[in-house]
Amino acid sequence: MSGWANYIVFIIATGGFYALLALSLNLIWGGAGMVNLGLAGFFALGAYASALLTVSAGAPIVAGFVGALVVGAVGGYVVTMSTTRLRGDYLAIVTLGFAETIRLIANNEIWLTRGSDGISGIPGPFRAALGGWFNAAYAAGTVALVVLVWFLLRRLDLSPYGRALRAVREDQQVAQVAGKRILRFKIEAFAISAAIAALAGALYGHFNSYVAPDVFQPLITIYIFLAVAAGGVGRAAGAVLGAYLVIFFLEATRFAAAAIPDLSPVQHAAIREMLVGLALVLVLRWRPQGLLPEHIPPAPRPASTS
Amino acid sequence: MTARFSRLTRRTALAAGAMTLAMPAVVRAQGEPIRLATLTPLTGAGGPYGPVMAKAAAAVVEEVNKAGGVLGRRVQLVSEDDQTNPEAGVRAARKLIDVDKVAAIMGTWASSVTTAVAPLCWESKTMLCTVSGADSITQLPHQGYLIRTQPNSTLQVRRLGEYILSLGARRVFQMIPQTPFTQSSITLLEAALKKGGGDQGSLIYDDKKPTYRSEVDQALRYNPDLIFAAGYTPDTVVLLKDLFRAGFKGKIIGFAYSINQKLIDQIGQADVVEGVYTFAPSPAADATAYERVKKVVGTDSPDPYTCQVYDHVNLVLMAIAAAKEASGTAIRDTVRKVSQGGGKTIDNAVDGIKAITAGEKVDYVGASGPCDFDEKGDIIDCKFRYEQVKANKLTLLKIA
Amino acid sequence: MDTVLQAALNGLVSGTILALPAIGFTAMFAVLRYPNFAVAAFATLGAYGGWMANAWLGWPVVAALVAAFALAGLVGACIERVALEPLRPAGPLTVAIAAIALNVVIENILRFSFGNDLRGYDLPLARDVHFAGLRIAPQQIENLALALAVMAALFGFLAFTRIGKAMRATADNPDLARLKGIEPRRVELLAVLVGAGLCGVGGMLLGLDTSVDPLTGFRVVLSVFAAAVVGGLGSIPGAVAGALVIGLAEELATLAVAPTYKSAVGFVAILLVLTLRPRGLLGERAY
């Protein structure tokens, strides 16, 4: 494969990683009303966990993915432990600091992470056997995984657990009065969400065969917020759609920016980044429900459940 | 119908003919343009460097187009932003390779971006020219599709050690942020200094902080007679100010890409930077490319990255001319035929292309060095250009 | 011992740099009840505002600081009115996210206009003076004095002026304030003007020591958040205390931990404070 096809396949795969991150964010933002500004940090945890397991410890790729899920969940659990009792603003600030700290550790603990050199040569599943078809196969696998995670999250959403989560989001006090163990719900939701973000990291690493601290900068978190906001907070399908819209937007602006004459390359670059921020503000302002508004299914009648 | 058709074509043909006469050689270069790309950091931590590099590359391409292009074709330069981030860099590279179908990507700066982009390049047979410093980069299995003009740390630090000793310094303190060459820089400089009876202390700092007072205190407790400030421009600005405030009277040396004219202008105070030494890879003293960069890019003291990207573009264009083919593989196979191995000494692509077309063998001597590459893509050897800040200007001390 | 004292002194100096943006951040939070994460951009704007006044117009430091305050404050107030206020019904976190997005917008407007080149003020740098075995920077004492003066002015404003009192009343209890005939929108707008303006002043002081470029404010923003949280979100004296604590902790930590981890100190401080004393040093309830 070559040319446009190759490029589009690559964008589909990358959009898949973004989609998983968006699903992760949607679960807690849309699901439980919590905000994770450290998405990049959990993305990094998964990428590094899987890279280290497969490259340094020689484990099979599947073990890398499982490791990423576990490390992500544990990371999410630890981060929320100290803040779940507090207002959401605190969690936002803690997660922001968390992502930066993870990046610092990845940069400095050279014995473990190889520092700013990063880890290269991360194996991709059947990379040699697939040859030129690797990217296409991987993109297909990623999309399948996105669909699987979407399906599982939807099941979760429709279950009593999902309703309880939404109750927590809408009104903590009422949910508490109704006997919901809010703290546990929030921590669990955050841990699951963090695990999904870590899974995205692992997928990223095995696709690009390289991870480095520079990958996990705050801007990617903003992309994902844009994705979830554009798709519709609270709708898993919206998060996936939003993620693909964002990657399309990021790539399309390259061509659009090139059409504006008489600007220096740095001005083109500034316009492209500025548009991302502007788009997020505009979506929040003019279409807060996103493209696919949340619709909350009615709770089943007691008669039908018993 | 027929009449109208012929009138139209005649008019078009007339107009086209008139235009061809009126236009300079630029447009007369026929056929599909040859596409090349720069991938430099225009946003993010590398922001202070990338824009100048993109500008320098564009200046060289413009010069070559004015002289008629390469292989009778116009050269088109596409500039993308890697955001100093491998993820964004890879996306940009994919677009350059798959959509623009460029023959070469030039100017990747952050080692992480280069390491991430390199596999895309060798898999798609696209040439990659980089200024990244990490030693690991040329060790990648790049099949020849990668050259770099930045000396690796072994070459660079060994020479730096010799130079520091020649300045009479014996107790050296290295202050360096966490980069891919930090560890090797510390061990290699220590070894080089110890061989000459010197010694080294070192500290790795956080490159985002607004003050380095405590770090400077730690450095001064070592009682150094020279401090090697091994960071990049934004953090070195802060470090130099804090060294000045602390009253450090010893010598200071830093990379020329960090202590450049912009840093001097930014600090704007002669006694803070007076006497600071800088060093950069360089061709021999009689080479002319450095002077040409000044003219082409329009600056009095081009920084080392500008010089290197100037060399990238010139080398790639001459390799295309010599191979008579504008593909990554052609560039890979011929770049060493124009960069080294004797022949007419050339300092720019316009002259180089003329000589190559005339059947001459050329040997490019660039602005950042002689540009002779080993099989791994590293430069074999180069001189270094030592400069010192005097009255807010970088003045050449020696090239050795 | 001298080493520790010197590091502590350095910590106080770097704490002062953090204090003004931390006050700005916390003051906006106190009145508006959402974390305005655009403080990084406000600080950068202030740095550019001061730089234009100083380098282009030749204004002296104090006048340039006023310019820094004005530019950051006005932009802050404009985006509050145009972009953030309409989002308030969607909840504080939505506003906070929009503020982050605005950071990116402003950073890139500055990049588009000025490029990435590092700019410096046309102000002389002075050597430190030595006193009892310690070195003290006269300039940073000046910065400290400036910061303290600004803080004193702010306290005076809040304590003695009608609108200042109204601001405190709104921060304490918006509903009660409204009952008393205080127009909340005016108070809120003023809080953003002052808060963003203070971030701008802090940004210019930061730019004096570092350099002015599109990332000037961004580099310290985590320490600023840490200062505000450690001091107690919403408490102005708390922000001052928090800034000094973070400054001290960052500098003292260099004696024990690798200096590369300086940026992580703030994060650890946040975690400690939130675990042990969630409302911060001088703050109110945090949950």
From TrEMBL, chain A:
It is found in: Cell membrane. Signal peptide: none annotated. It is a multi-pass membrane protein. InterPro entries: ABC_transp_permease (IPR001851), LivM-like (IPR043428). One of its GO terms (cellular component) is plasma membrane. CDD domains: TM_PBP1_LivM_like (cd06581). Keywords: Cell membrane, Membrane, Transmembrane, Transmembrane helix. This is Branched-chain amino acid ABC transporter permease.
From TrEMBL, chain B:
This is Amino acid ABC transporter substrate-binding protein. It comes from the Bacteria. Residues 1-29 form the signal peptide. Pfam families: Peripla_BP_6. Belongs to the leucine-binding protein family. Residues 33-339 form the Leucine-binding protein domain. InterPro entries: BCAA_transport (IPR051010), Leu-bd (IPR028081), Peripla_BP_I (IPR028082), TAT_signal (IPR006311). GO terms for biological process: amino acid transport. It comes from Vineibacter terrae. The keyword Signal applies. Keywords: Amino-acid transport, Signal, Transport. Gene3D superfamilies: 3.40.50.2300. The keyword Signal applies.
From TrEMBL, chain C:
It is a multi-pass membrane protein. The keyword Glycosyltransferase does not apply. Its main location: membrane. One of its GO terms (molecular function) is transmembrane transporter activity. The keyword Lipid biosynthesis does not apply. InterPro entries: ABC_transp_permease (IPR001851), BCAA_transport_permease (IPR052157). It is found in: Cell membrane. GO terms for cellular component: plasma membrane. The chain crosses the membrane at residues 12-32, 59-79, 91-114, 144-161, 187-208, 220-245, 252-274. GO terms for biological process: amino acid transport. Keywords: Amino-acid transport, Cell membrane, Membrane, Transmembrane, Transmembrane helix, Transport. Pfam families: BPD_transp_2. Belongs to the binding-protein-dependent transport system permease family. LivHM subfamily. PANTHER family: BRANCHED-CHAIN AMINO ACID TRANSPORT PERMEASE PROTEIN LIVH-RELATED, BRANCHED-CHAIN AMINO ACID TRANSPORT SYSTEM PERMEASE PROTEIN LIVH. This is Branched-chain amino acid ABC transporter permease.
